[in-house]
Amino acid sequence: MDKDAVKKVVIIGSGPAGYTAAIYAARANLEPVIYEGFFSGPAGGQLMTTTDVENFPGFPVGVTGPELMEHFKKQAIRFGSICLMEDVVSIDLSARPFSIKGNQSKFLAHSVIIATGAMAKRLDIPGTRDNEFWNKGVSACAVCDGAIPIFRNKDLYVVGGGDAACEEAMFLTKYASKVYLVHRRDELRASKIMAERAMKHPKIEVLWNSVVEVVEGENIVNSVTVKNVKTNELSKRAAGGLFFAVGHVPNTAFLANQVDLLETGYIKVKPGTTQTNIEGVFAAGDVQDYVYRQAITAAGSGCMAALEAERYLTSIEIH
Predict the structure, then answer these.
(1) pTM of the predicted model as reported, rounded to 2 decimal places
(2) Residue 144 a catalytic site member
């Protein structure tokens, strides 16, 4: 491997965290290489499947997710970032420089920033799969998709029982005629305040001890069949959409447990930093943030990771 294949910093993952890290690293003359992803998901991360983004500062009339990510990417490239539309298939953090292998390329790196994000969990319910009604009335992000016209003034269903499910349900009340929270148990897992808020909302009804058996429609969702797990009674109900709110899975499988993870699978970082347990390896965005999961916080942690990587490289006299 020639010397040009040894990089100061390699960034794995795009989206707000990865691209922001690239912008800061490139402006610091670190000449970052960023693996944007390909088969694992669209370059740009979860925002590539988001319609209007109205809460990102600097866009008073809103911006689409793909357009926002295109701005991020162009800014990273402007300062010299090398963007590769590849997935990282393996990484070796046991020796220095670290070894990173993509679908088509291979690099050694003095530092690594992991910004691979997290994917929303989906239950395997007939009608909700990729080639069925996914993105045609089935979603895993109410904040992203709830305002889409197909959901307005319709009965909507949220699957889940935690804080996220309650938040999603309450958000959807802005647009739905009614929101049904489908939970397989007889008590919500959400915090007491969130559960009470959801149950007291006049537009929300909790379907206890229930699961969704099938989602049906023509071009878009128009019905769900709900089963009571105690009585086995089935009821087919009119529906404009279904939203999964059953958690997220951080994209860390490729790391093969080489960095410390929390029990939930998120990368463990030192409080107030993006530092992992391996010196020179940093984690930014939703792959380590299980609390906020917002574009703006992901971008902020991407900035932190780049600054910390720069300081680390200076400390080992890599300029």
Answers:
(1) 0.79
(2) yes
Residue tagged active-site, from 83, 87, 145, 286: 145
The average pLDDT across 265-272 equals: 96
Fold identical between 3-119+248-315 and 122-244?
Answer: yes
| Residue 312, number of CB atoms within 10 A of its CB | 18
Residue 26: which pLDDT band, with cuts at 50, 70 and 90? very high
Confirm or reject CATH 3.50.50.60 for domain 122-244, answering yes or no.
yes
Active site residue: 144, 166, 286, 289, which one?
A: 144
Rounded distance, CA 141 to CA 300, Å?
A: 22
Q: Is the pLDDT of residue 42 over 80?
A: no
Contact 17, 286 (CB under 8 A): yes
CATH class of segment(s) 3-119+248-315: alpha beta
Query: Which residues have a Cβ under 8 Å from the Cβ of 263 and sit 6 or more positions away?
Result: none
Question: CB–CB of 259/288 below 8 Å?
Answer: no
Q: Which of 52, 92, 141, 303 is catalytic?
A: 141
Distance between CA atoms of 209 and 53, rounded to whole angstroms? 35
